[in-house]
Each structure stands twice: as structure tokens, then as C-alpha cells.
């Protein structure tokens, strides 16, 4: 199970998260410019590498905001209550099936200000800790958290940073946000269509 989660789930969620991040960056030129300048200030002419990631808070915020708005796995696969218990004041009898709606949690206006808005800055204002992987529950929590969480986070962040460093991204006319749930992950209904322009590095 640990190997399956690390290899299969981490690669699938990484791909989905990267596509949504690039969609939002292409749609939001100011965010894209801010990310590009942060990378340039840290990396200079050097290509972004894994060791640069701790020095790139805005890139980290882009990653976390993307998995918040576009939860890679919007509903956690069913869990079973093996004994009578209480969760949040609700009585759960043994044998019950429980599904957690992560998308619903991440769109809760009691927890997130303007949740429908993609705003990486929310993870930089001190209210939300971008290093807290449990905040968006994208990787589960506790002893059942995803074994591939760190791998997915590092690979997706490095990929997003690298493509933003190399190219300027703009949406093609008519590009829409449509989400399609296929299996475990939430993909775009149609493949991402963008216009990219190489940057002068």
C-alpha cells in the first residue's frame, strides 16, 4: 500500500495539481509575474532545483492554494468505523461508512475567506501555515495521511516553478475552468490550452 500510494497516487495528484496551477497562473498575470520575480531573485540564471524550494514562499503558497481550490482527491475514499465513536458531536455507530468531502471543507466560508477565489497570498499572511499539509487535507491526516505527500509537494512545486521560470503563460481564448472527476482525482474537463512564450533568461 505504501509503495502504491508513493508511486501511483503521488504522480497522479502531482500531474493534476501542476495543470491547475498553470491554468491559474496563466489566468492571473500578476501572480505569475510575482512568482517569476521571486524565482529570479533566488535562482538568478540558474535553473530552479529542489534545494531552492525552502527559499520560495510564494511558490509554496501557489502549490497550497492550488490543492485547496482544486483538491486532487475531492472526496476521501470510504472509511469504516470499527467501533462506536463520536466525531464533531455526531454519533457514528460501528460499521458505518464515512466519506470526507475535502472539496466542501476547502470551500467552507467559515474557514476560508472568499474560498472560490484562487489567492496564493492567503498562505503568506500568517493566518494559514503553508507548511501545514493537513490544513487543506489534500493528503489526509494523522496515521492515514498519504505516504507520497512530501514527494508530490516537492515534485509539483519544482515543476510549477520551472515552467514559470522558462515560459510566460497566457490562456487561449475560450479556456474554461470546467472540472471533471475521473476516478480518484479532479482533472480539467478539457486539456489545458495555453499560449506560451519563452522568457529571456
Automatic annotation (TrEMBL):
Pfam family, one: p450
Binding residues annotated for heme, in chain numbering: 146
Cofactor: heme
Membrane association type: Single-pass membrane protein
Alphabetized GO MF terms: ent-kaurene oxidase activity; heme binding; iron ion binding; oxidoreductase activity, acting on paired donors, with incorporation or reduction of molecular oxygen, NAD(P)H as one donor, and incorporation of one atom of oxygen
GO annotation terms (biological process): ent-kaurene oxidation to kaurenoic acid; gibberellin biosynthetic process
Similarity field: Belongs to the cytochrome P450 family.
Protein name in UniProt: ENT-KAURENE OXIDASE CHLOROPLASTIC
Organism, scientific name: Salix viminalis
